[in-house]
Amino acid sequence: MTDHTPAGPELLYSEAEGDLRAAVRSLLADRATPADLPGRAEDPGAHDGALWKALAADMGTAGLLVPERLGGQGASHREAAVVLEELGRAVTPVPYLTSSVIATETLLALRAGDLLGELATGRVGVLAVPLSAGPGHEPAATGTVTGVADAARADVLLVPRADGLYAVDAADATVVPQNPLDLTRPVATVTAGTGGTRLADAGAAREAVRRGLLAGAGLLASEQLGLAEWCLEETVRHTRERHQFNRPVGSFQALKHRMAQLWLEVVNARAAARNAADALATGSPEAPLAVAVAQVYCSRVAVHAAEECVQLHGGIGMTWEHPAHLYLKRAKADQIALGSAGHHKQTIADLVELPAPA
After folding, report:
1. 104 CB burial (10 A radius; 0-12, 13-18, 19+)
2. 202-241 and 253-282 are packed helices; what angle lies between their axes, rounded to 10 degrees?
3. pTM of the prediction?
4. CA quadruple 269, 272, 273, 275: dihedral sign
5. What SS3 state is found at 185?
6. In this predicted model, what pLDDT tens digit does every residue of 146-187 receive, in sequence order?
7. In sequence order, what E strands does 205-300 have?
8. Distance of CA 219 to the CA centre of its chain
9. In sequence order, what E strands does the chain have?
């Protein structure tokens, strides 16, 4: 008798994903360690072009979601999620989420082959919507958009307008940097005018933007997972080495309980993030629900892990020289990126037809 029970999500990492992780981690260990973060963050507008080229073009990670016939790697959201886990671990200041996921996924929905090929080789594309915009976002009525992540690094802007989606050369737009909370992910105000190449009409553009933001929100959970994992590992390492009363502070029962609780949260966050990545990769009809669940949970865990990292490092965790404060700022900024927790809770309520929490 044939079993027609549908297969469940695949949450384990494949051997190829493990190899990809090792390669990305090795690159970041050489060029973008957490210890380097405070120095890099002093100039929020700085863009490490050599690091981006090595990651995006030389390693080919920018084209993971792009089909091979268009010059990409023909992989899936699962592999892109692995890259984002590693970028989250190092809070790496590169436009991977904005260009290689959100902008790329938007163009995939429109089958915009030429632009996809360019983004796959490391050219930076940015969807001109606020970083806070979640799936279902409606474009602004004006030509000016605030809070656009990585706009200052963009080569091309994808600009939603009332009559469709346009590709605008970044040199033809006005980009004014803003003061961000997260110094490693710069935001800017973008005024794109009325020029550019029309890629889609209003209906197709709306669906493409929704798909791009959905993929972005789903894979942001993997970035949050990587951030939380680093914070936990770094905190455990520090509390083993730091001594008080002639014993490691990590041996105190109260701190053991706090770190054990955080470990459980990180394990659960990994399951939620992997489920979202797998649902996106397989085109599951449950993808919107998986993404919303992952965002509600992983955003909270990332903030908690970063808070514990700062607090359990004691005095050094409060200093500007230690990277812990940058992890906390990234976690807090990510908490409202691509839809707040309230937005995603409302999405869950609508999808399962239950009242949303107050």
Report:
1. buried
2. 150
3. 0.92
4. positive
5. coil
6. 999 999 999 999 999 988 999 999 999 999 999 988 988 999
7. 243-244, 247-248
8. 6
9. 125-127, 144-149, 156-161, 164-169, 174-177, 187-191, 197-200, 243-244, 247-248
